[in-house]
Amino acid sequence: MTRLASTKVAREEKYWGAEVATLENEHLRVKVVPEKGSDVVEIVYKKRGYNLLYESPIGFRRFGSLSPPVGTGDSGFMDYYEGGWQDIVPSPGLASSNRGASWGLHGESSLMPWRAAVSDEGETARLRVSTSLVRYPFHVDKMLSLAEGSRVLMVDETVTNLAEQDVEFAWLQHIVFQPPMVAPGMHIDLRAGVCTAGVYKQARLKPAVPFEWPDAPGLDGSTVDMSQEPPAKRCEDNIYATLKEPWYAVRNANAGLTVGVSWDIAVLPYLWMWFNYGALDYPWWGRSHNLGMEPSSSITELGIAEYLEKGTELRIKKGGKLRLRLSYSVADGAQPVRSVGLDGRMTT
After folding, report:
1. Rg (CA), the chain
2. Which of 69, 156, 238, 270 places its Cα 20 to 30 Å from the Cα of 327?
3. What is the pLDDT of residue 297?
């Protein structure tokens, strides 16, 4: 009997000949590039033919395929940023350092090759990926699962501290959406408390002024409802939210589609939101309309030194482990979502 849920690994020209692992069932096709940070580069809803993850105009390149014209704090990540979904430890955010180790933007796991093994079991497609960091004493092990008949991608991940000492770190799931989800008809559902905006050169929002989601204070004195569809004017904003509940839903009435994401709040109690609506100049040049909805251990985005200062870092004792579970679910329709369970079930 033909399996309806399976995993395969093959080299793909679209990804410069890199090995791509594909988990697939009747509803979803999920593509992962293990050698590039275990990035999830595609989640295609087969019924509509949409890739729900952002495809950056920078495009995909294999590590080592280019030499930056000048080394900067963000060149390691940005020169290779194809979009999609990155898994980032131990220092998401801007360049920073801790205990003698230094990283650029979003270091280090997103810039490491990961090993991959197909682990299909019964009626479930399963891919196991793992890596050991270079600048930090961490081993990261992750299982992605897609069951037959399901519209839910499940992720179960563990970070192990290999050091002979306790170690602090931060963790971010860098999940980014694109049209048709990020387009007129879009709405964001979530349960957040205090939020603040970051400093961006094309921002609409007042930076560092606390507000309650979704009503953000605008630079022009207005109140901006950040849960609604993109504005006509080009802009780029970042928001850092303290969550009341560990889930969100992005839905679009015109597309007739909803994506829900849920995770362990004890590990990731915050959410970074990146609104890029046609921002000009480097690195987007007006070519991107995307929404980053990024569960995080820490705020704001200045790197591990800031998280330690604010007390929002995670810690693992020597020889200890920390587990994270996450679900990414897709549903037809665009009704308001009241909750998303860790099993991916959306309540409307």
Report:
1. 19
2. 238
3. 98
Report the C-alpha gap between 253 and 273 in whole angstroms.
Answer: 21
Is residue 171 within 8 Å of residue 107, measured between CB atoms? no
* Token pair of 135 as six digits: 């600048």
Structure tokens at 224: 């901006």
Neighbouring C-beta atoms of residue 183, cutoff 10 Å: 15
Q: 90: cis peptide before it, omega within 30°?
A: yes
The tokens describing 16, both together, are 């410069």
In this prediction, residue 164 carries a pLDDT of 98
- Please list the rounded mean pLDDT of every run of 10 residues in the chain (348 residues): 79 95 98 98 97 97 81 85 98 96 95 96 96 98 98 98 98 98 97 96 96 97 95 95 98 98 98 97 96 97 94 97 98 98 98
DSSP 166-202: -EEE--EEEEEE-TTTSSTTEEEEEEEEEEEE---TT
DSSP state for residue 285 in the 8-state scheme = T
Domains detected in the chain: 6-339 (2.70.98.10)
Task: Report how far residue 44's alpha carbon sits from residue 173's, in angstroms, rounded to the nearest whole number.
Answer: 19
As given in the structure block, the two tokens for residue 261 are 């994401």
Angle (nearest 5°) at CA 78 between 76 and 81? 110
**Rounded to whole angstroms, how far apart are CA atoms 189 and 337?**
6
Q: Say which amino acid occupies 73.
A: G
Q: How many whole angstroms from its chain centre is CA 323?
A: 17
Which residues, in sequence order, are CB contacts of 321 under 8 Å at separation 6+?
158, 159, 160, 161
Strand 85-88 relative to strand 96-98, pairing:
unpaired
CA–CA separation, 128 and 79 (whole Å): 27
